[in-house]
Specification:
By secondary structure, the chain is of the alpha/beta class. 44% of the residues lie in helices and 16% in strands. Helix 7 crosses helix 11 (301-316) and helix 9 (251-263) packs across helix 10.
Length: 419
């Protein structure tokens, strides 16, 4: 290209020279982008798992599918993948087993399988668990500098301090680690993308939990996935990891588009969401597509709206106490008394939902799918997680699609947090 430019400069009109150089520069940029899109990627994938008594099914599914997860990511994205596992229980388990166990990163599938095979579901005292301690341990792992960092948090119970009215023995949060909102902020600054997987319908027993998990993911540029069909776990992990790898490959292009819109007089005053819509439309007009994880939403519309309100509070709170004092979380806390308690059989992974009285349908929409006793009470006995048709039919797929405004928003969120 340099030799061609030199020859052209010797015999051409100045305007022609400018056009020629610009066209060649565009070609160089296109080649650079193609190289980045096709170059091998690096992925550090961390599982942060609640390992108390109710989570055995999800631990086994992760163990059974880890080889499939790795193979698909490596083959489809040409990725160099490393794994880690962080297990957490609760403070009452610290003497008999553990509070938190964090495994070092490994690129060995066999070793990761062994990590998971050595993981059992047991313990857990009060309803909340040591979530903050688990996320804190994950934030201190040895991530590679050039890697896409994805943290998959799988849980069915809240952190200490989020639901003080539900018999929380540590209403001020975990001891021995920073406030959980400080931990989340640290994850965001490290560009650790949190995919929060909420185990349905269990998360619905804790009024603010869906919104909290969603807020954590929003703050780190990740996604919240309500999972009612447990066998989809592998597809969610694989699809989420692939989406983030592909988003990272076009991050510079997206950030440049957003920056140009912020500087342009016609769009500088637009609200953020409108700006992201315009950015995605402009990118789509240039043919920008990216892989996306698509998962059916199994959450009732009313509960989904309430979760979005809580997520907004969590996303902008500096401490958990500040979030809990907000009107959105206070409103959620007021519904605690009308919700049934959730206990687990010692030898079973299946939730056993028990109620001493009627379950208000407005407070707990999914109860109607199981209720058969007079007055709407939930019958005694096990309630399989995927028993309801809306859960059993839940699907997940990874597809190539035009970049969405939601993806633009997530990229901007995590790049801004790093700054």
């Amino acid at each position: 290209i340099v030799l061609q430019i030199n020859a052209f400069l010797a015999c051409s009109h100045p305007k022609s020279i400018v056009l020629f150089v610009y066209s060649r520069f565009q070609k160089i940029l296109s080649l650079a982008l193609f190289h980045k899109m096709s170059a091998p990627s690096f992925l550090d994938l961390v599982f942060v798992m609640d390992c108390t008594g109710s989570m055995g099914m999800y631990i086994r599914l992760a163990c059974d599918n880890i080889e499939k997860i790795v193979t698909e990511i490596v083959q489809s994205e040409k990725s160099d993948v490393r794994f880690s596992l962080v297990r957490y229980r609760d403070f009452c388990d610290e003497r008999s087993s553990y509070l938190v166990q964090a495994e070092k990163f490994t690129n060995s599938v066999e070793r990761m399988q062994q990590y998971l095979k050595n993981t059992t579901a047991a313990g857990g005292g009060d309803a909340p668990e040591a979530v903050a301690s688990g996320l804190h341990a994950a934030s201190k792992l040895d991530y590679r500098r050039n890697a896409v960092r994805v943290l998959v948090w799988i849980a069915d119970a809240p952190p200490h301090g989020l639901c003080p009215g539900q018999g929380d023995t540590l209403p001020n949060g975990d001891t021995g680690c920073p406030d959980i909102m400080e931990i989340v902020e640290n994850l965001a600054k490290q560009e650790i993308i949190v995919y929060s997987v909420g185990v349905e319908p269990s998360v619905g027993d804790y009024p603010a939990l869906r919104g909290f998990m969603r807020g954590v993911s929003d703050r780190t540029g990740g996604r919240y996935v309500p999972l009612g069909n447990a066998p989809l776990l592998a597809a969610v992990i694989t699809g989420g990891a692939r989406e983030e790898i592909n988003l990272e490959r076009i991050a510079e292009q997206v950030m440049e588009e957003v920056q140009q819109l912020r500087l342009a007089p016609a769009s500088a005053a637009l609200p953020e969401d409108a700006l992201y819509n315009l950015a995605s439309a402009n990118l789509q007009s240039r043919g920008v597509t990216v892989g996306q994880l698509q998962v059916d939403n199994v959450v009732d519309a009313g509960e989904d709206k309430a979760a979005a309100e809580v997520a907004s509070v969590v996303r902008n709170s500096k401490s958990l106490a500040e979030a809990v004092r907000s009107p959105a979380l206070q409103a959620q806390a007021q519904s605690v008394a009308s919700r049934p308690s959730m206990v687990y059989a010692a030898s079973s992974d299946v939730p056993v939902r028990r109620s001493s009285g009627p379950v208000p349908m407005a407070a707990m929409p999914y109860a109607a799918r199981f209720a058969s006793a007079p007055g709407g009470a939930v019958p005694e006995g096990p309630v399989p997680m995927a028993a309801a048709p809306s859960y059993a039919s839940q699907s997940a797929a990874y597809v190539a699609a035009p970049i969405s405004s939601e993806q633009v928003k997530r990229l901007v969120s995590r790049k801004s947090a790093k700054e």
